[in-house]
């Protein structure tokens, strides 16, 4: 009954005209940036962070969340129609989705993607509402040592689940942690790594790093490749039609994808991308029915499974962020930044001190998923027309928006120059095969790890054995060590390389 009363209060707040309007705006923007290849939710959220200063906390978070899960819907459109995924989580959707388009069945593929996304979004939101309060009860047993060990596990998990070279991912995490230490030490007041710049004494703004790596860096990179890819005219979709028989055949894949995505969305470094790839791999291992088309040749299961998984993963990635204050993905790190703008610290205390915000967000996710289902069916041909816009026309508007946003945060030209430096670094890193996501996670978790470690040492009188004398902390550290040893095994590294090479293709 308490659960239902909380949901009732959440829906009452989420259905105010202001929150409904921003939920709709977030869903529309999310679908738009999902449809347009090369933008992505991380870049968009980084650009829109300054706008949340003027919004109430719940309203701002509702809009940003709508952009995130809306992008998962939109990413499948280009993947199915022109074999160009708008989102990295929709890469595997293109395999069967575009094959269906070649057989003049694009409407069926888009319908399965939309229905699967809606079902998975509802399942993921239900799990978020049901399990977050239970996880908070467990988190109250956590002290500084346990949080430090949990963050160690999260760091190693993000390295294991990142694509590309393990050493490069590890290097980016360490560099991100170092950047997070720039500024004044909160305990001693000593200024670290400022190199004489007064503007760095308060640290590097998270928005600058996120916008440079995932805003400008990704956009400049995409300028090299997108224009020639977009030359293929997208087909017009006549009707999104799906028979009951096809829906019944696709539903088991939707259910499996939703369950798998809900689980993997909680893992550090996982989220929607890992969930979609895992769901497709799982579907490939399922036996084919008599006369069923193989996956990769135009099977609806190859669309239903991954699309359900990435939407469920997008929803459940909020669980560790809201209950433990740990971002599972770079997008969740931006959500933490949005909350910190309003002096709200996500974690176990959030459900008690800001319970209204939590339940309003949960309710808005159900409303947002309904918006996306209703909007995407009639507007599909409008999204298709947007694919004809040359990417080079979008770039100047994004540059102006980002630069003004960064300047408005600090009212300092130094922030703009710092942004330029990180843009150059982000582009160079991308050219050399370094991912930006591990750096962003290291940046936001590094300072928190230092704080929890110092608290643990203060409470124990400087005794390092506090980290392995406490059972929960020792278990988490053992898990970190086991995971690190596992990913260093030659057989695991070879299998991991095979998976990511297959994903890239």
From TrEMBL:
Keyword entries, A-Z: Membrane, Transmembrane, Transmembrane helix
Keyword Membrane in annotation = yes
A Pfam family hit: TctA
Keyword Membrane among UniProt keywords: yes
Top-level taxon of the source organism: Bacteria
Chain segments annotated as transmembrane: 20-40, 52-71, 109-132, 138-159, 166-183, 203-221, 260-282, 318-337, 357-381, 393-425, 432-449, 472-492
Concerning InterPro entries, the annotation shows: DUF112_TM
**Domain DUF112 as annotated: residue spans:** 20-441
Q: Which PANTHER family match?
A: TRICARBOXYLIC TRANSPORT PROTEIN (PTHR35342)
What name is this protein filed under?
A: Tripartite tricarboxylate transporter permease
Q: What is the lineage of its organism?
A: Bacteria, Pseudomonadati, Pseudomonadota, Gammaproteobacteria, Enterobacterales
